[in-house]
Amino acid sequence: xxxxxxxxxxxxxxxxxxxxxxxxxxxxxxxxxxxxxxxxxxxxxxxxxxxxxxxxxxxxxxxxxxxxxxxxxxxxxxxxxxxxxxxxxxxxxxxxxxxxxxxxxxxxxxxxxxxxxxxxxxxxxxxxxxxxxxxxxxxxxxxxxxxxxxxxxxxxxxxxxxxxxxxxxxxxxxxxxxxxxxxxxxxxxxxxxxxxxxxxxxxxxxxxxxxxxxxxxxxxxxxxxxxxxxxxxxxxxxxxxxxxxxxxxxxxxxxxxxxxxxxxxxxxxxxxxxxxxxxxxxxxxxxxxxxxxxxxxxxxxxxxxxxxxxxxxxxxxxxxxxxxxxxxxxxxxxxxxxxxxxxxxxxxxxxxxxxxxxxxxxxxxxxxxxxxxxxxxxxxxxxxxxxxxxxxxxxxxxxxxxxxxxxxxxxxxxxxxxxxxxxxxxxxxxxxxxxxxxxxxxxxxxxxxxxxxxxxxxxxxxxxxxxxxxxxxxxxxxxxxxxxx
Length: 485
Known about the structure:
This protein is mainly α. Helix content is about 80%, strand content about 0%.
């Protein structure tokens, strides 16, 4: 494969965006539409809402929990193979669910198997967009991620019609056939080789810290059997470390913690907005319309915020745009308990939906800015993995608060404060990094240290005056923390 000096920002990249758009329809939109089956499952199996609701939680949790597995297969085998395999597993899960005889059957087939299939498709497809785009990365992600909102808007009435015409079993069977389109999406994901990609195993052989005898053995293995060399213990350890070395980056650690709080805050609102609207006297039709508004505006937020943050004036501040969007959604949740009629809830749906689409678009962009394009697939797998537990836990916790307090106020306040804390954590970390860099500049100017910026963005210091040993270690640590930017 030819090696490209950088992302092409177009060409076949737009086919990658189209493929990722279809992947988000077949994964996230289908997952949202599973809630339409709740009443049917409840009536057929004679179970309460709590037990039936676990189906949706397990699908979401399995999709995010197994995201690192999707990244692993994409990195070591092929993104195309991973997505095609995921499409087959997800389709098999939906088809087997159409023959379910109990809720436990649905937990395994619709929850675990389908969720696993979605996991193998979701994060590798999103990472591929980052491989093909740099200058227009946010816009490309905005278009690709809008598939979730557009798919929900189109699929929801279609699924309801299928249930009325063919029962829930027939509807699941047809959805299983529809999800097979993931295999077509996988075929579109043509791999690309970039110069900034990490060192490969042969380059590992040239490292000074590898003993000469070990080099000879590895080179001999590479001549006799490429397969043995590829799976040798030393190369596997090195490659595994190279894939996940970003886990020790302070910037990624802060992002990971903030994602946990953000995921906890955003999940319950999609579950409890309609029940809350009904509890304050809004009609069923109007409550459903609120969700439709939220979904449509979510699409607008995906695309317009992606386009805006690609502009020259905002491109350097995409991190702050992300935390601003998360913080605005948190504020919306705080004000929700005092909005107790339909005319007030409509602006809420507009605002929350727009900023929800905005930060969903910027999650992979911000992750790429923190870890670099070469580690994006593995990093996105970890980021989406961190969504799993909050997605599983937050709706039941919110429901418990509603049962305990008799109102939705405590649940919405907890969601709002959780998202605001996520935003503030990133903000303080960003400010601390700027203060640290300012201190380093003043330190280097005072001591006569020369600063060199290499082509990969890393900062190297050559000390021309005597420095305290602690200062030297501090400068070295800063160099490492910025080497992947």
